[in-house]
Amino acid sequence: MKDMQQRTDALELIDFIDGSPSPWHAVASAETMLMARGYRRLDESERWKLEAGGRYYAVRGASMVAFVLGSLPLSESGFRIVGAHTDSPGLRLKPRAALAGDGMMRLAVEVYGGPILATFADRDLSLAGRVVLRSGSKQETRLVRFDQPLLRLPNLAIHMNRDVNEQGLKFNKQTELPLAFGMLGEGEDAEARLKRLLADEAGVAASDLLSFDLAVYDVQKGCLWGANEEFIADSQLDNLASTHAALRALIATEKPASTCVAAFFDHEEVGSESATGAGGSFIADILVRIGFYANLDEEDRRRSMAGSFFISADMAHAYNPNFPSAYEPGHKVMLNNGPVIKTNVNQRYASDAETAARFMRYCEIAGVPCQQYAHRGDLGCGSTVGPMVAAQLGIPSVDVGSPMWAMHSARESAGAHDHASMIAALTAAFCS
User: How many domains is the chain built from?
Assistant: First the structure.
């Protein structure tokens, strides 16, 4: 039965990722899950009327904060918060992307975050994101997604790049990354053709298309793989796996004692410093407004924060036996061995001994194994929303994640059993 549940959770994760080819689609997918369980959307521009035990969420751009009001006084129980992010590294279209020349149309892209660029070569790529339209005297935003392959980053033949296997595949970010889009007819305007394509997908006239935010994504669906299908392959496991796990855990927490919050931020991969990123005011704004509902004065608001706990859920580096020298010898995190606590003394991760021990107890309650990770001392360590949110809110925090291979590749891999374990651990945290 346990193995069956692990498989079900892994397949549900694959469906979630495949339905979320951009951060805006990820929020829409999350919204669909929440609405099906009775969550109500709140508008930040309106006055909120919250009810005891109520389930709510608010959206800001490609970020979302969802919460369930607990039964205990907020000043005594505080918040149980899990944070993840909706964005993933990759390629984004430039505002005037269409390029014409040599009888071809190409689309100019900008690198978003730190993707492994070589993994985007020779793959079936397409576009997804949002377009902004003229709607009378106002404007309207719609999601668009092209399911068919539209784009390709064709490799240079080895006969013209003889050292590629020794030197690695490299692309100049300005001159060699524009994506092949199609043949250009005589006298055809490349920009107008792109605009028509987007307008048709949005169901409007081309003249009503004002602007867009479009991500390049791989149309290949996710799958289970391995001798016993013990692995997952898909795009955006970093960090839609954590987003989905937090959603599942929140939904499973029906009548919590503490007020439970799941926050999903955009722009983590580029530093989080935006109105919708973890460095912005979104999470703090939501917590303050919940405090207004609870009639907290300034003293009790600070008491509530002191009694809170934050889990930053972002993926972790699993040990790759093909590259043993890349890992700290005592911290070889393995796939399908459970959630990982990530520690860095320079505060690239927010964990400390006390918060790590607290998450270990959650894993014990959930009946799942737990691992610990530290980066090699001679390699630069990545970071998460953990230290940023911990500093902003001033609450105890821990950084955790499910182990994975090929982080920031166009096609990442993880353990098929670990997703169920992370859901269970986060559910235990919400119920604490």
Answer: 2
